[in-house]
Amino acid sequence: MYIADDWQEYEVIDTGEGMKYERWGQVYLLRPDPQVIWPYEEKPQRIDARYTRSDKGGGAWEYFRSVPESWHLHWWELTLLVRPMGFKHTGIFPEQAVNWDFCAELIKKSQKPLKILNLFGYTGAATLSALAAGASVTHVDASKGMVAWGKENAQISRLSDRPVRWLVDDCIKFVNREIRRGNIYDGIILDPPSYGRGPGGEVWQLEEKLYDFLLSCKKLMNKDSSFIMLNSYTTGFSAGVCGYTLGEIFQKDFGGKIICDEIGLPVSASGRVLPCGATTIWTKEDVL
């Protein structure tokens, strides 16, 4: 398992009873995690805010202390904005730091400046990591709010002057247009949701769309491209399944190798590692 264990300002303190107890800088949050079926090592002592799911769907934050509307968290050279929002999210998935590391290392090891496409780019941490490592990036997400958040992260990370395009678009439609334009990328980063809707109401369902979408992404790459990285939180799309898929589509024609495994976060109280999805990379470079 690849473990995101180099955070200084973020920590999973403990897990238990379907919840994850975390420190985000100086703010202590309790959020649901359905895979946590074991008891706490010790009941949380300080909780600033707790997200509680509703039986009718969704949920809401309950605040026990004054919590800023937003605050900053630092990782490597990046400054990232944290903001509790609906569906228990905060704007950062800390386990993704292993993928940010992978991308930065691949970009630094390249013998040429890399042109990167970040699809389903969310609030832009992977984009900023690639920019800081020296790449140019096209960042695409269907949510106008997430793209605006990414731009803000770039500004507070002092990366606004780097070569980046921020695009609000449906990722499938954008990729198809890029194919028609004949554009080629050196690397592609994908963090697709299990289910989502594009800005025009387009429906994305991972199980139905992923394989064909990866075939389309292949048309934006060639034998000189450096990598494609696929992250998955979807049950059934394990690291092994994603590894076989990228091997079938990319490795057969382009050579290189596949690396894949679960990603996770260390838990301070128990010494365990909390699994948080899977990452799979096709690459021609050594990243480990």
Strand order of the largest sheet: 1-16-17-15-12-9-10-11
Count of DSSP H/I helices: 6
User: What would you report as the Rg, rounded to the nearest angstrom?
Assistant: 19 Å
Q: In whole angstroms, how far apart are the ends?
A: 12 Å
Look at the helices and sheets and give the structural class.
alpha/beta
Instruction: Describe the largest sheet.
Output: 8 strands, mixed
Which percent range fits the helix content? 25-40%
Mean pLDDT over the residues = 92
Catalogue the unreliable spans.
none
Number of strands: 17
Shape: globular
Q: Beta-sheet strand percentage?
A: 25-35%
H-E string: EEEEEEEEHEHEHEHEEEHEHEE
Q: Can you describe this structure in just a few lines?
A:
This protein has 288 residues and is of the alpha/beta class.
Q: Could you characterize what this model shows?
A:
This protein has 288 residues and is α/β, with parallel strands linked by helices. Helices cover 26% and strands 33% of the residues. It has helices at 97-109, 125-133, 144-156, 171-181, 206-218, 239-254, and strands at 2-3, 10-16, 19-24, 27-32, 49-53, 59-63, 71-75, 78-82, 115-119, 136-141, 164-168, 187-190, 195-197, 203-205, 227-232, 257-266, 273-283. The strands form four sheets. It has an eight-stranded mixed beta sheet. A five-stranded mixed beta sheet has the order 2-3-4-5-6, with no helix packed on it. Helix 1 (97-109) runs parallel beside helix 2 (125-133) and helix 5 (206-218) runs parallel beside helix 6 (239-254). The longest helix has 16 residues, at 239-254. It is globular and about 55 Å long. The two termini are 12 Å apart. The model has no long low-confidence stretch (mean pLDDT 92).
